[in-house]
Amino acid sequence: MGQNIVLNMNDHGFTVVAFNRTVSKVDEFLAKEAKGTKVVGAHSLEEMCKLLKKPRRVMLLVKAGDAVDDFIEKLIPFLEKGDIIIDGGNSEYTDTNRRCKYLEEKGLLYVGSGVSGGEDGARYGPSLMPGGSEKAWPHIKDIFQSVAAKVGKDPCCEWVGPQGAGHFVKMVHNGIEYGDMQLICESYHLLKDALGMTQEEMADVFDEWNKGELESFLIEISRDILRFKDTDGKYLLPKIRDTAGQKGTGKWTAIASLEYGVPVTLIGEAVFARCLSAIQEERVHASTQIKGPENTKYTGDKKAFIEDVRKALYASKIVSYAQGFMLMRETAKELGWKLNFGGIALMWRGGCIIRSVFLGNIKHAFEKNPNLSNLLLDDFFKGEIQKCQASWRRVVASAVQLGIPTPAFSTALAFFDGYRSARLPANLIQAQRDYFGAHTYELLDKPGEFVHTNWTGHGGSVSSTTYQV
Q: Is 43 marked within a binding site?
């Protein structure tokens, strides 16, 4: 990622000083990938800082956590007031909040920037999500918007907001990425096991899906993965162990959703699905002990079911993004950030892993109504969900009947049904809480007034303090 961003900046006319703590890698980079460019090598942080034009702009691409703090401390002695440190790694947004405050107190500017697109994106145009010390933006804007991916003439990069806003938006991006990947995997599971389709047949389906509303980078690469053959001429995908890894950003998104009380259920299920995949030996043993339904193959119209799966994937994807934007809206409200949701959708429209034609519709929704509380209330998305709803329900019902796990499809549908319900059974939860713990409840005709009932006749009238966690 680091060397590719350096080369990308060089391509756009910027002179970059490159440093790596393993100094030999600097010389190797200059002799190979950066040969013939204007990239300058440095063999120490002090040398690098002396070579940089003021205000110095130092971009870190190191592992999130202590490594970032260590580099900041090593850099501080060689920087002056007004210099800028940029963290381009996947740092947790709370760390970026802390680092902004710490460095601003020392007269330095700090930027936490989400960078998405992988190695290829870094080289030829990533999605960049910078936030932090806003005074830094005029000094980095030209560089960032030059190297970023473009949709038409629009760069997939704009200032996000203060403190850790940039890294928070990147975290939500990654959480949505978890959800998208899980939804695609569930679609693959249904096509493979319920319909018994071959790799090539499934690849053809994904290829067709990539020509419509589902057109996206992840659908495209899933098609290519299905078609890829190993050196022995056999398909590679069936040989890959079914235990998914994760680096933490999906988990952070789920934790943030709990912290701010936002029901980001689909991303949570996507994280748990990876956790379930990780206990493979236990699953393999359980498969010999626990039996599911006898009929595990779909016996209806194959072509119609494939179309139902496509619509279920599309509807669930809408819910996933709706939940992600709900989380960003609530967090912005809590932390006093002013986020441009249409601008965020544009930043994700190109360069990043979740890039898709679908994001253009989200951008239009927030352009039409910047105060839109939920994507599901936008006229376009209401219509799209309505067109998919019957198929979505059939797919979830069929998966349950066939014993094929579809946690993301199922939780997306459950959220949709919960969100559109004027009444939920939480009144019983409140009554239960008041019965065993005197936690009080509100009456429909007296909202905001908390009361307690002596349900047993011997509980007394004393109630606990009312509070929200």
A: no
